[in-house]
Amino acid sequence: MRIACLPDEGTAMTRHSLNRLGNTIRTELYIIKLKLSHPGNEYHQLLPDIPLKLLRWTASKVAQVELMYALRKCINHGKATIKEIAVCLQYIFQVDLGNYYDRLDNINLRQKEPAKFLHTLIDNLYEELEKVNRK
């Protein structure tokens, strides 16, 4: 497929052709976003409308995978697939989990504490409750 605003091979890109290319790309991205955000689209629910720069995952990827599997039965009455949950979490927190199925195997191999991150979350919650109780 040839994009109309690209110059023929062998000719230099002019400022005008670069501007046209930029406009074409922006338009196409906007159309894709509209299509994805349409309620009739199967991926509509996978694209929350939140400013992405606000939320960044700062714990390990393994921790996010641990959370993802722990949340599975709490989402859509347990009917959400791991892939659906992974897509959402990767989108929300702007992280690529890679092969999250392999990461679950690594979690499963932990001898001491398979739910290490979840225990950390429990500790974090208790700390927050203590702060509230101190006020």
Structural account:
With 135 residues, the chain is an all-alpha fold. It is built from five helices and no strands. Helix content is 55%, strand content 0%. Helix 2 (61-71) crosses helix 3 and helix 2 (61-71) packs across helix 4. The longest helix is centred in the N-terminal third of the chain and has 23 residues, at 15-37. It is elongated, with a radius of gyration of 22 Å. Residues 1-7 have low confidence and may be disordered.
Q: How is the secondary structure organized here?
A:
Layout: H1 15-37, H2 61-71, H3 82-93, H4 100-108, H5 116-134
Helix pairs in contact: 2-3, 2-4
Rounded average pLDDT = 76
Regions with little confidence, pLDDT below 50 for 5+ residues: 1-7
Number of strands: 0
> How many H/I helical runs?
5
N-to-C series of helices and strands? HHHHH
Strand content: under 5%
* Major sheet characteristics: none
In oligomeric terms, what are we looking at? Answer: single chain
Class by SSE composition: mainly alpha
Helix share, percent: 40-55%
Radius of gyration: 22 Å
Spatial separation of the terminal alpha carbons: 65 Å
Cα shape: elongated
Key words describing this protein structure:
single chain, mainly alpha, 5 helices
